[in-house]
Design goal:
This protein is α/β, with parallel strands linked by helices. It is about 35% helix and about 20% strand. It contains twelve helices and 13 strands. α3 packs across α11. The protein is globular. The structure holds adenosine-5'-triphosphate and magnesium ion (MG).
C-alpha cells in the first residue's frame, strides 16, 4: 500500500505533503492553553491538491476570540512555509465548546440536581457583593458585545426585586407562553438588540411591591432556567441581584455555571463586598472568570484629566489578591447611564465610543477565559498562579 493513501487514489508525494501540512499545523499553539491547533481540534476539512493548493477550515474556540487574526496569520504562515505548498485558502469559523468533561471545576462530577440548560453552552454570572456598582450595566453590555462578535447570546435577569433589564434593553412586551405536545408550558423570550431576554420585570406590575421568600425565588430561577425556550446559545449572561443570597445559591444548585464576573467600583467598601462574593462563589465551586472594575474614573469631554472619583487601583488589587484577572475597566460616562435609561445600551447606540470599545475588549477577554476553562477543564486562574499569563 505504500505510495498510496487508504483509498488508493493519491500518490505518495501527495500524502507526504499533507502530512507535512499537518505537522506544520502542530507548530501553531494557543498561547494561553499551550496546546496546538490540531490537538484543540481547530482544523477541519483540510485538503491538499496535487499541485500544492491547501484549503482548510480554522474553527475558533469562540467567535469573540481576540486572537482571531493572530490564529489566521499564524496558521497561514505555518502552512506556506511547507515546501511544495503553492497556495492556502483558509475559511474561518467559530464553535464554542463546552467542557465535555462534565464539570471538572466542580470536582469532576456534577452535583446532584444540577442539570444544564439544553442548548446553552456557557452560563456567565455577573455578580457583586454591593448594590448599584453597575452589574446590570455590565451584564447588558457584555451580552450586546458578545452578540456583536457573532455569538448567540441570552440575558437572564435574576434580580426579581429590582428587575432593570427590560428597561435597559428597551423591552416592553411580555414573553409569549406556548405549550409542548405533552402540555408543558414554556416562555418564548422576547428578543432585543439580537439577544433573548427573560426577566421578572416582564411578568409583574412594576409598581407593585414584591414580597417573596427563598423557596419562591428558587422556583422562579428554576423556571427561568428550564422553562424558557432559550434555543441554542453560546453564552447566557445572568444578571444577579446584589449580595450573596438565595438567588446565587439557587443558580449554583440548579445549573452548571461556567464562571462569574465580579463587578466592583474602585472604592474600599465595594471591594470588601466583592471579597464576600468571592468567598461565596468559592464555596459553591463556581470559578471566577475575572474582576470588572466599573466607574473607574471620570474624564470630561473637554479635558485630558481623569478624575478618580471612587479611588484608584481597587480592581487591580483585588484581581491580584484573588489570583484572577482584571478583565475590564469602565469609566463613568453619561451615555452609559442614558443608554440604560432609554433601552439602547451604549455598545449598540455608540459602538465607536471608547467605553463601548472597552466593553468589547472585556467581552472578548471573558470569551477567551471561558475557552481556556473549557479546554480540558483548566481553571484560567491556575494559569495565573503558575505564572503562565
Ligand atoms: N460606567 C458608568 N457610567 C455612568 N453610569 C453608570 C455606569 N455604570 C452604571 N451606571 C449607572 O449607575 C446606575 C446603577 O447601575 P446598575 O443598575 O447597572 O447597577 P447594579 O449593580 O445592577 O445595581 P443593583 O444592585 O441595584 O442591581 C444606573 O443608573 C446606571 O445607568
Ligand atoms: Mg442590577
Amino acid at each position: 500500500m505504500t505510495g498510496w493513501s487508504a483509498g488508493g487514489s493519491f500518490p505518495s508525494t501527495m500524502n507526504s505533503l499533507e502530512n507535512a501540512v499537518w505537522s506544520a499545523l502542530k507548530s501553531v499553539q494557543d498561547p494561553e492553553i499551550k496546546r496546538d491547533v490540531v490537538a484543540l481540534e481547530m482544523i477541519e476539512n483540510l485538503t491538499v491538491s496535487g499541485s500544492g493548493d491547501v484549503s482548510l477550515k480554522l474553527v475558533l474556540l469562540t467567535p469573540a476570540d481576540p486572537l482571531k487574526e493572530q490564529f489566521r496569520s499564524d496558521v497561514e504562515a505555518a502552512i506556506k512555509k511547507v515546501s511544495g505548498v503553492r497556495s492556502v485558502r483558509l475559511e474561518l469559523e467559530a464553535r464554542v465548546r463546552t467542557a465535555n468533561r462534565g464539570l471538572s471545576h466542580q470536582g469532576g462530577a456534577r452535583a446532584p440536581g444540577v442539570s444544564s440548560i439544553q442548548g446553552v453552552a456557557h452560563i456567565i454570572a455577573v455578580s457583586s457583593g454591593k448594590g448599584g456598582v453597575g452589574k446590570s450595566t455590565v451584564a447588558v453590555n457584555l451580552a450586546t458585545s458578545l452578540a456583536r462578535e457573532g455569538a448567540r447570546v441570552g440575558l437572564m435577569d435574576t434580580d426579581v426585586y429590582g428587575p432593570n433589564i427590560p428597561t435597559m434593553m428597551g423591552i416592553t412586551e411580555q414573553p409569549k407562553i406556548e405549550k409542548t405536545a405533552d402540555g408543558k408550558e414554556f416562555f418564548i423570550p422576547p428578543i432585543a438588540h439580537g439577544i433573548k431576554v427573560m426577566s421578572m420585570g416582564m411578568l409583574i406590575d412594576p409598581d407593585q411591591p414584591l414580597v417573596w421568600r427563598g423557596p419562591m425565588l428558587h422556583s422562579v430561577i428554576q423556571q427561568f432556567c428550564h422553562q424558557v425556550q432559550w434555543g441554542n446559545l453560546d453564552y447566557l449572561v445572568v444578571d444577579m441581584p446584589p449580595g450573596t443570597g438565595d438567588v446565587q445559591l439557587s443558580l449554583a444548585q440548579m445549573v452548571p455555571v461556567t464562571g462569574a464576573v465580579l463587578v466592583t467600583t474602585p472604592q474600599e467598601v465595594s471591594l470588601q463586598d466583592v471579597r464576600k462574593a468571592y468567598a461565596m462563589f468559592d464555596k459553591v465551586k463556581i470559578p471566577i472568570i475575572g474582576i470588572a472594575e466599573n466607574m473607574s474614573y471620570f474624564q470630561p469631554d473637554d479635558s485630558d484629566k481623569k478624575y478618580y472619583i471612587f479611588g484608584q487601583g481597587g480592581g487591580k488589587l483585588l484581581a491580584q489578591k484573588f489570583k484572577t484577572e482584571l478583565v475590564g475597566q469602565f469609566p463613568i460616562v453619561m451615555q452609559v447611564r442614558e443608554g440604560g435609561d432609554y433601552g439602547r445600551p451604549i455598545t449598540v447606540s455608540h459602538p465607536e465610543h471608547p467605553v463601548s470599545q472597552a466593553f468589547g475588549a472585556f467581552a472578548r477577554r471573558v470569551a477567551r477565559r471561558i475557552a481556556i476553562m473549557s479546554a480540558e477543564g483548566i481553571d484560567p486562574n491556575q494559569l495565573v498562579q503558575i505564572g503562565k499569563f
